[in-house]
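Methods — Computational structure assignment.
A single polypeptide chain was analysed. Its primary sequence is given first, followed by the predicted tertiary structure written as structure tokens.
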Amino acid sequence: MSKQLNKSLTVSPFFLFFLIHSTQTGVGLLNFQSKIIKGAEQDAWVSIVLVGISLHLIIWLLYFLLKKSNNGDIMSLHQQLFGRWIGNVLNIFFYGYMLLIVSTIIRSYLSVLVTWVFPYTPIWFLSLTMIFVISYLVVGGFRVITGICFWGMLVPSLLLFTVYFPLKYAYWTNLLPVFNHSLSDYFVSAKESILMYSGPEFLLIYFPFIKNNQISQKWAHISQAYTTILYLLVTIISFVYFSHGQLEHVTWPTLMMSKIIRFPFIERFEYIFIFLWLLVILPPCCMALWGAIRVLKESFKFKPRRSLWMSIIIVHLIVINVNSKIEVEEIGDFLKYITSSFLYIYLPILFMFYLILQNFKKAKSGKINP
């Protein structure tokens, strides 16, 4: 049975809607269209839906494992299943995964800033500025991060009203023909879309901070469904606005669509779009950094302040050493591989190992007859 923290440290189950959705929408929402079209082309929206549905199974798996964990998090689950030493080694890998998420998101967003807004500003300066903001929020604790997640969900939802402008130039025939690709093509598009759906795995860390967490699962599924609908909508709008050939050569399709938006009092709406997107990338960055600090605290009893300094130094070093656009894509591809392996390979293995271990214990105690 998982542990429930003091109520003053927890948030209502309803906030799971914001916590999960806001950690799933990040920089990937700006350029995922040009990646998923490489496989199933105009049918890539099918892969978006299928991956979204598969995440509901992952969420069920997460809840199953967390309910069996002693403290309701992955750190105690690792120690419970593999012992203290091996469990802590696995926790270190999870710590590295959290830092990789923060580094990749920050560096990807800085690529947008340098290309569109600050072409002559050093990466190290922009990195320190962002890390300072993220660290300041993380110091506030989980409830502050939850508040940031609320705004991280609200901003992209409000920007949905701007879809009217690209729809004026839509060619709906771009979606035709339908269902004319092989399974391997759908698999390629699905593989490219997995990274933008990452976020539910943070539940492995903040689950004890949810009130009545044992019965909060419905909000996680509602949030995942909303994310799937959002990505599906953006995908279809992009496909009917851009041709297949254009999407293959456009780096940030969502930003390019924002360039056509004109108001009498705003000339360059894409600049507002870019700066507002900072509120979108803050939730996953804050959650991952907070999660990394908590991993060290629960596994090795590190003080949070020391863990924070060590973590942000590592993140800054990673960010400033990723220089070219190719290296940015490479670190994104590496994170995509790690995320896919964690969600679809490691978690099922952990699930099977738990079942085998439980059956072994029952057999050993004589509850199962030979």
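Note: Residues 43 and 179 are 6 Å apart (CA to CA).
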